[in-house]
Every structure is written in C-alpha cells, then in structure tokens.
Write a structure and sequence with these properties.
By secondary structure, the protein is α/β, with parallel strands linked by helices. 47% of the residues lie in helices and 18% in strands. The strands form 6 sheets. The protein has a 5-stranded antiparallel β-sheet. Strand 1, helix 1 and strand 2 form a beta-alpha-beta unit. The longest helix has 34 residues.
Length: 626
C-alpha cells in the first residue's frame, strides 16, 4: 500500500485520528498539525517523504490540490456534526429563527437543503470556488448582517474582527473516520491500477506480437519492443504520430468506424519492411464511448514443411511420401474400419484401388500404405492421367524417365486411372502382373519392381460394361479395394476437423473467434461435397473475414450461401427428375440432345462432342444421364 499523510490545522483532529486508529489499524504514514500559510510546503515535504495520498480539510485541502499532483481526500462535515454546530449557534444567539452564515468550500459540507425547516433557522451559505476567495466570502457574510458565522480559521478570524459571534467548523470522529476509510479506498484503487498497469506493461514487453496503443484520434501513444522490431524504428520516432502515417494501409472507412463507432474489430494484411503482417485493430470502449484502440501486428509464420519436421526420419520413408496412419482423421468408426483395412493391404505387394469423393484423403492414405509396407525404403511417385492423350500418358508413366522407372523399388500412385487409354491400360496390366515396362513398339524392359496404387472417381465396373476398361486390369485392381467414406458420413471426424481448423486459423492469424453452438450445428449438417479441402478453405475464409468475436449460425449460413450458391440446387436436382430437367446446365442439355440424336451411341456421341468416351461417361454420371 501507499503512504497516507494526515495534515490538519487543529490538534484536536490529530487526537480524533489517534482514537480511531485504536479501533482499526488504518495505514497512516504520518499525522501533523500545519499552519495554513505553510500548507503547500508542508504537503510537498510529505510527498518527498513518500506520501501518495494526503487527507486535509477546507482551505488547506484546496491549496494542496491546486499546487500539487497528489490525490487529496477531504474531510467532509457530516449531517450530525453540522446539526451539533447549529444547536450551539442557537444557544449563543438565543433568538427565534437566527440567520447563520456558513463559510467554506462546498465539498466540505453535507447536504443542508432542509436545515432551515428542520432547525428553525435561516442558513446562508458562502462557498468559495478558490482558496483566495475564502476571505471575500467571509466579509460578504459580515456585510449581509448574519447573526453568527460558522467556518474555518479564516472565517472565524474575520468574524472576530467584525465583532460577530462565530463557531469553528469542528468535526467529530465520524467525519475523520469517513475520511480515513475513503483514503484507504483510494489507496486500494491506486494499487489495483498500478498492478494492472504493470501487468499490461509486462504483457506488452513480453508479447510476441507487435502492439500499439492509439488514442481516440488515432494517435499512437505507446508501442512495445516487438512493434519497434517490426517497424525497425525506436519508440521515440513513432510516438504521437497518426497511425495512418506509420501504417498507411490503415487509412480507410473500416479504420474510421473502429475509432468513431466502436466497430468490434478490423483486420487486414500489411507489408512492413518486406515482412507480411496480419493486423487487428480493436476499439477500447468505456461506458459506450470509444477511448482509443489497440493495434496488434502478427508476423506471418513461414510454413514449415512436414519434411523439415521429420528430419532424421527420411531414410525410413520413400521420397514424397510423408503420411502415416496416425495422420488420418479416424474418430469415426467408418474411418477406423477403412484404416484397419488399409493397414492389412500394406502387408501385401498387390495393387491397391482407393476410391472416395473429391477432397477425401486418397493420396494421404496411399502414402500411409507405402510407408507401412515392404517398399517404404523406396521412392513414392504420384501422377495423374486425367486430361492427357495416349502419347502424353505413355511418356508420363512408361517412358525411359517416366513414373514407373522413377518409382523402381518403391510405390507408384496413379490418380484418375479411369482416364487411361486402352493401350496404356494394357501396359499398366503388364507392369503390375508381369513386372514388365513396355515400350511404344511393344518391347519389354524387365525387372521393374513397383508397388502400384490407383485412385478413381468413376466406377471401373461401369466402364467395364461399356467396354471402356480392360477386364483383366479391372479385376487386378479391384482385388484390394478400399473406399474412404465421405466426411458428411463421419460426423466425429467432421466435428474434430472443423474445431481443429478453426483453432489453427485463429492461432495462425492471432485472431480470437468463437463459434456458437448453432454455428457448429450448421457446419455439422452441411453436406461438404468437397470434404476436407472444402472444410479447410471455408474455415480459413470464415476466420479471415470475421467482423465479430462471436460467430453465429447466421454468419456461417451467409458465407456458405455466398461461396456455394448452387449446393441446394444440386441437391434438389438429385431428388426430382422434373427439377433436374429444368435446372440442367447447358453442357448437360447438349450431351442429352446429342445422345438422343445418335440413338444413344456413346462412341459417336463422344466423337461428336470432341471428348473421350471415358470423359463422356464421367459427365453422364455427373449429370445423372446413365
């Protein structure tokens, strides 16, 4: 606690304080009787001795407040004490309805509005606004012809000069007790403020983020050491400058709304000294009034590649395959069953056929199988055949420097295997079945020991029926097949993924947002056709563009509607043929008309449309034209 000093003009007030201290141990550092003419010098002496609060009364209190910066607690006369003085005055004057003049400072007295009526007197108050006006007020009371003057030393002295009866404005222990309690309350509040200031200062000094305090006009009044480091300037160069001058990106309507209207927060990216910074401006609002703002700058982390995290383990894994089964989301039973099956497949050297909706963990699962299998010390090569012609596919897969050659001794993941041409399907069959890599002219290169895994978004059985896929390859691939269930059917995984992504985004961008229960319900019941990829990118957008700390279902639904406006339309298409007809995109209409015109012949339809039969089959499946 701080040191409290009691400075008064009468010895009797010191006695009162001593008596009160016998009842309760108040933290009083010093108590002295001082002369009014020495008030300022005496107060300064107490301050030099360590006083942080001074208790005084009347003119002395006024002088101390005027000429020092220390908090002053004034001794205020209570109603009971004033009533005693009025009773003594009536005994002295001994007449009905005497006129009493009360001289002093207004904050020395209690409320005396009804004293006239209660005590049968006429009370006139002469309150001075400043200490040098107190004598004038006392002389005015004399001129007004009051019967008796009640006041301090100055008023009593002037009354004596004029031959008018007077009473010194004495107090009892009540007012002294109140003053001591008030001083302790002030001291406690000051202590709390100092501790809070010290804590804030510590937070600023040891924060990993740059922090700047702005006043209500947007002027920078303080920054921490991290902000100095970000700006590459000393605090003295920054203080008292407009925030827009130091951070030009802040200039704009959004920043003005924070300062003028207390908008909850404003976030933006800035480039400071060749460093990308994510900034948040939040208002400081006290009793609905904006008193300033806090600007927080977070240096964007350079994303560490998983390969760096796994340094030292690379010799145990194939190049390009970093996934382990523990990396897969598997809170749900359906995904646990999928992982259990994949672990069994890892023990085999036969090809694995992985299916699943777009955005599921097909590539990661392939990496996990590779790293848990017999070929884990070899390379892991991943390619996609979609959109490539026969020659390009051959070069990519079976050329001298193709994927099969590069994956020798390891694993080869072929995505979109349904897009392979018939000739390349045969070459893949030979690679898997007979360990031969076939050249363009049919020559064979033996000894290519490669574990093959493939993915597809199209049913190979459907292509087989259409004659678009080789039977022997289809049977070879579908032996060890595993399907990754969609995220919408894995509620436990979905909830875990949403919460984890929201948390990671908040941490990465140094933002602090919470989702309401209703918001989570909306997310958990959304179909998420893009699965993990869609969830991750949606949550990133949600956090980056959030304008409020708390995000409810309305905020989530609005963003979903903006990002994926066609989702509900697609859902309705799958449940109603009539709606499907009316809401088809132009591509679907053209395919349907061409099929009808050519009698359903898919080979001729594909040729007419300038696409492969496999692409036609996929588009027919997409638009439910099977």
């Amino acid at each position: 606690m701080g040191k409290i000093a009691l400075l008064v003009s009468r010895e009797e007030m010191i006695y009162q304080a001593h008596n009160i201290l016998q009842e309760k141990k108040h933290e009083i550092g010093e108590m002295r009787v001082i002369k009014t003419e020495d008030t300022v010098s005496e107060a300064r002496q107490s301050i030099a001795n360590g006083a942080s609060i001074i208790i005084a009364r009347g003119l002395q209190a006024s002088l101390i407040k005027q000429y020092t910066d220390i908090p002053v607690v004034e001794i205020v006369i209570t109603a009971q004490e004033m009533a005693l003085l009025v009773s003594k005055a009536k005994q002295i004057i001994k007449k009905d309805n005497p006129v009493l003049g009360v001289v002093g400072f207004k904050n020395m007295f209690c409320d005396m509005s009804y004293f006239d009526l209660i005590y049968g007197i006429e009370m006139r108050t002469y309150f001075a606004e400043k200490g040098d006006l107190l004598e004038d007020m006392a002389r005015q009371a004399v001129r007004d012809g009051v019967d008796l003057i009640i006041g301090g030393d100055t008023a009593v002295g002037i009354a004596g000069e004029a031959g008018i009866p007077s009473l010194f404005l004495s107090n009892t222990e009540d007012s002294m007790r109140n003053a001591l309690s008030m001083a302790e309350s002030v001291d406690y509040a000051m202590g709390v403020e100092k501790r809070s200031a010290a804590q804030i200062e510590t937070l600023l000094d040891y924060s990993f983020n740059g922090v700047a305090r702005l006043d209500a006009c947007g002027i920078i009044v303080d920054i921490n050491a991290t902000m100095e480091d970000i700006l590459e300037k000393k605090k003295e160069e920054i203080l008292l400058k407009a925030a827009g001058e130091v951070f030009p990106e802040l200039l704009g309507e959004s920043f003005n709304q924070v300062l003028e209207y207390g908008k909850e927060s404003y976030s933006l990216f800035m480039e400071i000294n060749r460093t990308s910074v994510f900034a948040i401006v939040a208002p400081v609002v006290i009793e609905k009034k904006v008193e300033g703002a806090i600007l927080t700058c977070h240096r964007m982390k350079r994303k560490q590649h998983k390969g760096q995290e796994l340094k030292g383990k690379s010799s145990l894994r194939g190049a390009g395959a970093l996934g382990e089964f523990g990396d897969l989301l598997q809170e749900s039973k359906s995904m646990q069953d999928c992982v259990r099956l994949a672990k069994l497949y890892a023990l085999s050297e036969k090809p694995v056929f992985i299916t699943g909706e777009p955005g599921t963990e097909k590539q990661l699962l392939a990496q996990c199988i590779h790293n848990a299998g017999l070929h884990k010390d070899g390379p892991f090569v991943n390619v996609s055949c979609d959109g490539l012609g026969e020659e390009a596919q051959y070069d990519l897969l079976f050329g001298d420097k193709g994927a099969a050659a590069q994956a020798k001794g390891g694993s080869l993941l072929i995505e979109d295997v349904h897009a392979l041409t018939k000739a390349n399907q045969y070459r893949l069959y030979q690679l898997i079945r007979h360990k031969h890599r076939m050249g363009r002219e049919g020559q064979r290169y033996p000894g290519e020991e490669v574990r093959v895994m493939v993915t597809s978004t199209v049913s190979l059985t459907g292509l087989l029926k259409e004659g678009e896929f080789r039977k022997e390859l289809c049977y070879l691939l579908e032996g060890l097949s595993v399907t990754i269930p969609p995220l919408k059917d894995r509620k436990e995984d979905l909830e875990f993924k949403i919460r984890e992504t929201i948390r990671d985004c908040c941490e990465h961008y140094s933002r602090f947002h919470v989702l309401t229960k209703g918001a989570y319900q909306v997310l958990l019941h959304y179909p998420w056709k893009g699965n993990l990829i869609q969830v991750e990118n949606f949550c990133e957008r949600l956090i980056l563009t959030a304008e409020k700390r708390s995000l409810d279902e309305a905020a989530v639904e609005n963003l979903l509607a903006r990002l994926y406006p066609d989702e509900k339309e697609k859902e309705s298409e799958s449940t109603s043929t009539e709606k499907e007809e009316n809401s088809f995109p132009m591509e679907a209409v053209k395919i349907k008309e061409t099929l009808f015109m050519l009698g359903g012949n898919r080979e001729k339809t594909a040729k007419e449309l300038g696409i492969s039969k496999a692409t036609l089959w996929r588009k027919m499946k997409k638009y439910h034209l099977e």
